[in-house]
Every structure is written in C-alpha cells, then in structure tokens.
Amino acid sequence: MTSGPVVVIGHVDHGKTSLVRALTGTDTDRLPEEKARGLSITAGFAYREYGDAVIDLIDAPGHENFIRAMVSGASGARAALLVLSLAEGVQPQTREHIQIVDALGIHPGLIALTKADLVTDAEREKRAADLRAALAGTSFRDAPMILCSSVTGEGLEDLHSAIAGLSKLPMAPGPPGAFLAIDRVFVSEGHGVVVTGTLMGGALKPEDELVLASSAQTVTLRRIQVRGCDVPVAQPGERTALNPRGVASGDVTPGDILYAPGTCSASLNLDVLIDIPVSAGRGLRHMEDVRVLYATSHASATARLLGAKQIGPGEKGFAQLRFEAPVTAFAGQRAILRSFSPQQTLGGAVVLDPAASPVKAGKALRLATLKAAELGDVPTLAGALANEQGGCVRFQDISRLARASISEVRARLGDGIVEIAEGVAATAADGGLALEGYRARLAAYHRANPLKPRALRTDIRDVRLAPALAHHAETALAAAGAVRLSGAYVALAGHEPSDHLTPDNKARMEAIARDLASEGLTPSGIDDVMCAPGDEDLIELLIEAGTVIRLFNVSLKQTILFHAEAVRDAARVLRESFPGEAAFTTGEARAALRTSRKYIVPLLEHFDAAGITLRKGDTRYTV
C-alpha cells in the first residue's frame, strides 16, 4: 500500500477543516481553544484509504499568525490541496501559502473551490474563471479545479477521485536515511514518550537506532505506529508515531528531529541557494537577519550573501545562513525565509551544505563549489572542493553535497580522481601538478645549494597545498624512486653533492677532518671548526660520508663534532677497560678515555643508541 501526505492549504475561513472532515470523517481541530475560536491553530491530521493507496490530509492553519504551524504541517508533504472559497476568492494567505509550498518543493496538486452552495449557478462559471485567472502567475495555474461544498456534499466524489491520484506523484527528494521532524509529543500510559511526524528518507522498524538532534542522544525504537496501528515497518511518506526507549517527557519537544546516524549534520552554518519569487514584496539584503522555518522547527539566522549585495524579487543567489545555535539539516532540505519586521515570507532556500564552515576569505572558491552542488555535477563538484581545500577533498564531503552515496560518487568520478589517503582524494590533475611542483621546487633547491646533501621537507612542501596532498607528493615520488626521504630531509635521487666539489672544497674538507682527528675526544667547539664560508655544507658532507660524527650535549645545548676514527677508538678502549660483566660509571668511562664530562655524556649516549654499551641505572656494560 502506497502513502501520500497531502497538505491542505488556503486562507483562514475558506473551509479547509470542514472539507477535511467531509472527506475523512475526522475533525482535525482537536484543541479546546481551536473548537472555542473556530480557528485552526496547529496542523491537524486525518487520512482516507483509496484502494491500495492511503492519503494523509494535513490541515494547515490558514491564519497569518500561524505560518510556523503551517510550514511545520507541510514538512514532508508530497502534494498540496489548495482550498479556495468560491464565494470569497483569492486572499492574502492564499498567495502566501502558495508561495510557501512552492518554496518547499511541494507539488501543486488540486484546487478545491469550496462553499459552492453559497454561489448561484449563474455566477459559478464566471467566478471560477476569475479565480483561474487570479492563479495564472502561480504554480497552481494548471492544477485541476473542482467545485465542492462540505455542507451539501456536492463535488466530493470528484474530489475523492482526484485526491486518490495524488499518491502517484513522486516524493520530494529526502535524506539518505530515516528522518522524522517531530510535530507532536505526548506520553502514552504504560509505554512512555511518543513522538509523531511525517517520515522521510528511509524506512524504520522496531529496534532501529536513531539520533535525537537536540541532545545527540542515540535511542532505539520500542514501537512504531502508522495511523494508530502497530506496524513492523514504517515507510517514507507515512504519518508515523515512534516510541523511543530512554527518552523522558522533558527531553524532546515539537521541532526536534530523530534521524538515522549519518543522515544529518548539526552546524552553525548552512550554505544555501535562496530563491526570492517575483511575487515577494521585497528582496533579501546581505547580512540581514531572518527567521528560518525548516521542517517542524524555526530559528533566527544572518544571511551572508555570496557574490551579491541583495537578492531581489525574481532572483536566485547563494548565501550562508549563520545561526546562534547549531541546527540539524540535510543536503537538499527546503526552508522558508521570513523577515522580522514586518513579518512576511521573503522566499525559500535549498540547503546545499548542511555542515558548512564559516565563509571568510576565498568566497569565490566557495561560490564555485555551491554552483556545482546546485547542478549536481559530481566531477566539477570534486574539483571545486579540492580547490577550496588545498588540492584534496574527502569523499564524505563530496557525498554530502552531491546527495549521493560514497560508492555512487566513486563510480561517477571514475579515473578523474586519485585516492591519496583513506577517504581522501585529489583530482588526477591536481595530483600530477603536486608531484611536478614538488620535484621542481626540490630541483631548484639543489641548484641553489649544490653542496647540501638534502633539504628540509618542510622547506620543499607547498604551504598552499593540503597536508595530505603534500605528503602524497613526497611518498609517491619516493615510491617511484625519484626522491630519497631521510627523516625530516629529502633529496632528488640523482643529487650528488660530491659532483659539485671544487679542488678548494676538497682541500678544505681534508683539513677539517685532519683537525678533528688530531683533537681526538676533546675537539674544538663547532664555531671554531666552521671558520670559513661554506664550511657548514662541507661538514654536512663529511657527516654524510661517515667521516665525522655529530653529537649533542643536551644539558649544555651544544653540538659536538668528532672524527669517526676517534669514536671507534673510544669504543675499543671501553671494551678493553671494562670487558664482559664489568660495570662502569660515567666517571670511570671519562677517566678511561681521558676526556671531560662535556664530551663523555654525549659519547656514552651515542654508544647506548648504537648498542655498544648497555645502561642499567647509573652503570653501563660493554656489549
């Protein structure tokens, strides 16, 4: 059996509630205040079976003071039934309700011309024609129009037939998983809290887990009812009641959301496409505060327009809505924007990114991303996101903005994207440019510093690139044998500093090595060793060749250079002086090597690291 939620809209006192009662036998005005005032305050719910289809009729309040309740009731609706009094004609709320259902993406289903019994037969045809003309500029211009009366029953059978056909209309695109915007909360004796709403996105069954948006609490479902009956599964489009475990009456209120994990995001920022219809009284200004009505909730936000100072009537534009507290939404969700003073509907918005970061600099890049998201062009979207994020993009981000699963995203991208880390990708073009850029910067470094054996990796990375892409460039080049990685350093595979040594360089290197060898285990300070221009690079080459060993005295914060032969001799002396299990202290080692504490501490630490000595407490053993 298929379901079709239909929102009943129109101006106050045009007979919506009476019509729903005549069609279903249900009085949707359930509150004492509604009965006393003869005025719908909240959305009312009724249904009627039509063969293998069930139509839920959602009676939306028609008074201008209850627009929030009207939007709440329309959440999840498939089509709209416009109720228009044949006796009174098009009124202000008629037009605003039409504007709202258009902005929410709800199909203009039918027009019920009510109170036909108050109009003479001679006047009917002309009044109907006048009303059709009045609706010419709206989405209901071609909708079937049926004259009816809740009092006499005239036209109700024709209306039933037309309503039954609304179940064949396609559902509006929903989130990737189950999503219930809560419109009622009550306590059922013996069962606990029950929440109701129109189910969207995906099916639900008992024991499924959902997230309560207001608290981020994960709950399981004890029972599910559809139209008052327990069911093993609820389908999207059905009016659904859920009985979650572990939720107290004060934990949830109308306007809250229950959603399947991974379906929604909570954020202070929503990137949206705003549409201000031609019929709007005015446009939307940059940085204007607006009331945002979304699902069954509402919140105030500042509209930060991207690429424009204003969105005028008949125009569309991209913006970031910034909220004071996090809101929970999904990509593709529709919302209504209203001004604060005077209170009026400005237009609608489609959520493009429900987990947006604050837009500061680079608005042009963000604008390109949102344009691609609007068009649903996945390759262009991936490229735009990569441009925003330093050359790489998460599949999760593409999936969210493309409103497609990660597997679908991968299939639609094909060979145009390269996965550079778990869940992170770069376009093939960006990946290639990153590799070439890295190689070019490293080659330029070697040309400028031919005697330096390596460069710091942080000096070669492009700071404009995302860290993941920079790391990918290094590791890919290393895997291909194009570069050599050594700790914090990198060099081109073909770079040989020795090829660039002049005779003077070679003579100076020999002199440095000779001086260090002559000083044994009490060498001069490094500042004394590096006394000529270029000595720093030559010493690095001696260290690279293994001729010189560089050690550090941490406590004195000094760098010490030893000739490698002197260090090897020191290891031999220690083994001869303290053979086998003979333990020795730092002082005993210093005496055996005839050096000072300045040198013995870094020497012994070097021997420990090299496995020549083994430290146990305050003593050591040779190995």
Descriptive account of the structure:
It is a single chain. The protein has 623 residues and is an alpha+beta fold. It has 5 domains: 2-168, Rossmann fold, CATH 3.40.50.300; 179-259, Translation factors (Elongation Factor Tu (Ef-tu), domain 3); 265-360, Translation factors (Elongation Factor Tu (Ef-tu), domain 3); 361-500, no CATH class; 503-622, Orthogonal Bundle (Arc Repressor Mutant, subunit A), CATH 1.10.10.10. It has 19 helices and 32 strands. A 6-stranded mixed beta sheet has the order 2-3-1-4-5-6, sandwiched between helices. Strands 7-9-13-11-10-14 form a 6-stranded antiparallel barrel. Strand 17 (288-294) and strand 18 (297-306) form a beta hairpin. Helix 18 (586-593) packs across helix 19. The longest helix is centred in the C-terminal third of the chain and has 21 residues, at 428-448. The relative contact order is 0.06. Mean pLDDT is 89; it is low at 34-39.
Task: Please tag this protein with its features.
623 residues, alpha+beta, Rossmann fold, Elongation Factor Tu (Ef-tu), domain 3, 6-stranded mixed sheet, 6-stranded antiparallel barrel, 19 helices
CATH top-level class of the largest domain:
Alpha Beta
The CA-CA distance between the termini, in Å, is 82 Å
Q: Which superfamily, in CATH terms, is the homologous superfamily of the largest domain?
A: P-loop containing nucleotide triphosphate hydrolases
- The radius of gyration computed from the alpha-carbon positions, rounded to a whole number of angstroms, is 38 Å
Tally of helical segments: 19
Taken together, the total number of domains comes to 5
> pLDDT average, as an integer?
89
Strand content: 25-35%
What is the approximate shape? elongated
Kindly name the structural category.
alpha+beta
How many strand segments?
Answer: 32
| Biggest pleated-sheet summary | 6 strands, mixed
